[in-house]
Amino acid sequence: MTLATISLIGFALLAGFYLTTLNALWTLISVTVTAVLVSQLLQKLRRRDALTERRVCVLVLGDIGRSPRMQYHALSLSKHGYSVTFVGFPGTKPHQDVIGDERITIIPITELKGLQVGPRVVSYVTKVILQSLQLLLVLLKTDVQSHILMQNPPGLPSIVVTWLVCGLRGSRFIIDWHNYGYTIMALSHGPDHPIVRLAQWYEQLFGRLSSHNLCVTNAMKEDLQNNWNIRATTLYDKPPAIFKETSVDLKHQLFMRLAKTIPQFRFCGERPGDETERTAFSCRDPSDFSVTLTSGRPALLISSTSWTEDEDFSILLKALEDYEGFVEAGASLPSLVCVITGNYSVDSVLQVCVITGNYSVDSVMLQVCVITGNYSVDSVLQVCVITGNYSVDSVMLQVCVITGNYSVDSVLQVCVITGNYSVDSVLQVCVITGNYSVDSVLQVFMVQVTIVLTVYSRALWSR
Predict the structure, then answer these.
(1) Beta-carbon count within 10 A of 293 CB
(2) Fewest CB within 10 angstroms: 79, 136, 195, 405, which?
(3) Dist CA 38 CA 16 (whole Å)
(4) Membrane-spanning residues where (predicted)?
(5) pLDDT by residue (tens digit) across 114-169?
(6) 404 in the same domain as 456
(7) What's the rounded Cα separation, in Å, for the pair 301 and 178?
(8) What is the distance between the alpha carbons of residues 395 and 392, in angstroms, rounded to a whole number?
(9) Which long-range contacts (CB under 8 A, 24 or more apart) does 261-267 make?
(10) 195 and 60, same structural domain?
(11) Considering its fold, how many domains does the chain have in total?
């Protein structure tokens, strides 16, 4: 019905433009029909029932499962008797309390991409337009909400779309300010980039049009007031009931699982025949199966990150360096195991390697593969390129063992990078791959001949 009404409005407007050249009476009729249809559309969009004031939409244009504060908002509203429509990107599984709550309905929306051809700005603009249309349709299809609570950032295009929907439907518009979106964009584009300046203007303009504003800290509240004249209420994060101390038994089970792949969680000094389950932090007595935390265990430091550009992770890394300096100076401090959780990719983990300066093949390659779960030849070779350590002897066998890929093609990638096509290196390929056929060895020589001819032709051209 709504789509039909919108279509009739469009038809009436087009007819009005056409008929203006014919007769003023037809123009008046067209305008009147359009006004009636618009009025009917607004009445339909604003149609309320007895439950409207107990309905709230929580919106985040990001991964719902990685938006804990918005999940807490949804749970809190539900506990106070509100029906919650939770809109956001699917991906990470939300907390079980959110999934199992009968008052919370999750509406997933797809993260759309713009045109993948042409300049980057074209891709960005088309993405914003498509995402705006999708979000607009999703919000208009839901029942009329008393409030729409959205997270910012990301606020492009969700702020303007939410403001428009609230205006059409008579809902109150609340922004939960976590940060400024334009400052995050400035990290990659620079503060003076036209897109960043446009984003700042957009965020400031439509941010002022909200009915209410929330923020995480008083510092953010003061900044909003002083710079943009936006009044906000500080709403601190408060851990919900789902956060509680983990039992020693569950800790031990976790440590045992991690010890299978991460050496730092393993107990050093196991004796043959010892049936006690041990980790670096805990042990289980085989006589009564009781679990205790071991004395002299390392301190376990956990830090989460989403590896976004606005997170200065070097602060933690510098603190770890200072900690190590205190220990070397004689301070009596426990050993430290630092666990960094988050959405890992090979690129993000290698950033840590570069920052710490610890990126030898032995110390990094296996850990990167284990953490990221990416054992492909390409991912391992990224480590080799960054470390500058990619001789055949030091890398080839490790690549094959870690990736489980002993094919000639995979090993030849190492040969191409190392530039080592000698007979000795070819024989290593044969030994590792178990492929001694003439065809497999000739592949190596064909690659070598091609490279030699290329170099020779460049030398002739330079003359």
Answers:
(1) 13
(2) 79
(3) 15
(4) 6-38
(5) 777 777 778 888 888 999 999 999 998 888 899 999 999 888 888 999 999 998 88
(6) yes
(7) 25
(8) 5
(9) 261/370, 262/370, 264/298, 264/337, 265/337
(10) yes
(11) 4
Q: Which residue has the tokens 């008929």?
A: 19
CATH code of the domain in which 165 resides: 3.40.50.2000
Residue 50 has pLDDT above 60, yes or no: yes
In this structure, are 265 and 371 located in the same domain? Answer: no
* 14: in domain: yes
Distance CA 383, CA 389 (A): 9
Share of residues in the chain with pLDDT > 90 (%): 21
**φ, ψ (nearest 5 deg) of residue 305:** -155, 150
Kindly state whether residue 11 falls inside one of the protein's structural domains.
Answer: yes
Verify that 80 and 164 share a domain, yes or no: yes
Judge whether 19 and 27 are in contact, CB under 8 Å: yes
* Nearest partner of 143 among 193, 92, 194, 107, judged by Cα: 107
In the chain, what's the furthest Cα-to-Cα distance?
A: 102
Amino acid sitting at position 221: K
Q: Is the pTM of this model over 0.70?
A: no
* Residue 252: exposure state from Cβ atoms within 10 A (0-12, 13-18, ≥19): buried
Regarding whether 172 and 118 lie in a shared domain, the answer is yes
Domain enclosing residue 261, as ranges: 248-293
What's the N-to-C CA distance of the chain in angstroms? 76
318 φ, ψ (degrees, to nearest 5):
-65, -40
